[in-house]
Amino acid sequence: MDCWYCGKVKTERLEWVSELPRYTRRFAFFVGRCCHNTPVKAVAKELGLDWHTVKELDKLYMREQLRRAPPANPEVIGIDEISMGKGQKYRIVVSDLLQGRPIWFGGKDRSEASLDEFFVWLGPMKSQKIRLAVMDMWKAFRKSTLKKGNAPQAKILYDKFHVVMHLQKAMDQVRKSEYARLSGKDRQFIKGQRFTLLSHKRNLTLQGKKALKLLLAANHRLNTAYVLKEQFEQLWDYKTHGGARRFFERWRDALKWQRLKPFQKFAAMIEKHWHGIVAHCDEENQVMLGFVEGFNNKIRAIQRRAFGLRDEEYLRLKILTSMLPNIDE
């Protein structure tokens, strides 16, 4: 069109045309909805389009989802890192646990400086409203959160699932040491029983329970370690700091003379991070901790179908929109 005002030739903007001018907004949103739970290649094959085109349309859709999403104003945040393939490459994901959605993806690694970028993005006014930060026991996350100018008023709560993961690692180390110590027929009870030992007894099948009973009867050290692992779960049931502390001290005393070094190291780690663990007892800290673990599983699924790490912006959009509602227009 010839603009009578400036004398230049301009293209008229049509609201129903997407940023990729060969496609309408409605079609772009349709493609985006298809890509929500389906790999790009599968959608491209179904629609007869090039997969690069499908991915760009998906990006348009996800950017519109973020534009329509309410602004981030979190009171309870969850902080976690995700691995970006081979090597020590990480990015940080911060979620609003009350809203149940991720709000920030970034950083260059999992350092204190990288998490500082989130608080700069959020701004000092909103950062001061954060009352609780849920994280794993990574020192850099705690230091960044409590730094003056970030969120020093926030309470730190260590994620239950990460704590249990360390306990399971201790259990597996005991299993490996017992397998290495024994030989011949004595090994047959331990071989192939990693999942059985790391699972809760209530989650095992009838066959798994029989195998566990046989294994624990045959090996005293594994029996002791398994009982201690199961008993530690009672810690999360306490509602007072004093009760939780007495339970932990009794549990730690039971380790004496048992020659279970991995469990002793685990107990020392719990002691060092006690204030962030006992915070589970406080009623105001009863938040959606299950969301953190479920969201981590969703991220791993996204990474498997996001064409690796060739397009980090695409991965960022996928993560940030994973919990947002679809656009129906």
Secondary structure elements and pairings:
Blueprint: H1 25-34, H2 40-47, H3 51-68, E1 76-83, E2 90-96, E3 101-106, H4 112-122, H5 124-127, E4 132-135, H6 139-146, E5 155-158, H7 160-181, H8 194-198, H9 206-218, H10 220-232, H11 241-253, H12 261-272, H13 274-278, H14 289-305, H15 312-320
Parallel strand pairs: 1-4, 4-5
Antiparallel strand pairs: 1-2, 2-3
Can you describe this structure?
With 329 residues, the chain is of the alpha/beta class. The protein is 51% helix and 9% strand. It contains 15 helices and five strands. A five-stranded mixed sheet has the order 3-2-1-4-5, with helices on both faces. Strand 2 and strand 3 form a beta hairpin. The longest helix is centred in the middle third of the chain and has 22 residues. The radius of gyration is 25 Å and the shape is elongated. The chain starts with 24 loop residues before the first helix and ends in a 9-residue tail after the last helix. 30% of the residues are buried.
Structural class: alpha/beta
Distance between the termini: 29 Å
| Backbone CA Rg | 25 Å
Average pLDDT number:
86
Poorly predicted regions: none
Helix content: 40-55%
Strand order of the largest sheet: 3-2-1-4-5
Alpha plus pi helix count: 15
Can you summarize the main beta sheet?
Answer: 5 strands, mixed
Shape: elongated
Strand content: 5-15%
Query: What are the secondary-structure elements, in order, as H or E?
Result: HHHEEEHHEHEHHHHHHHHH
Give the number of DSSP strands: 5
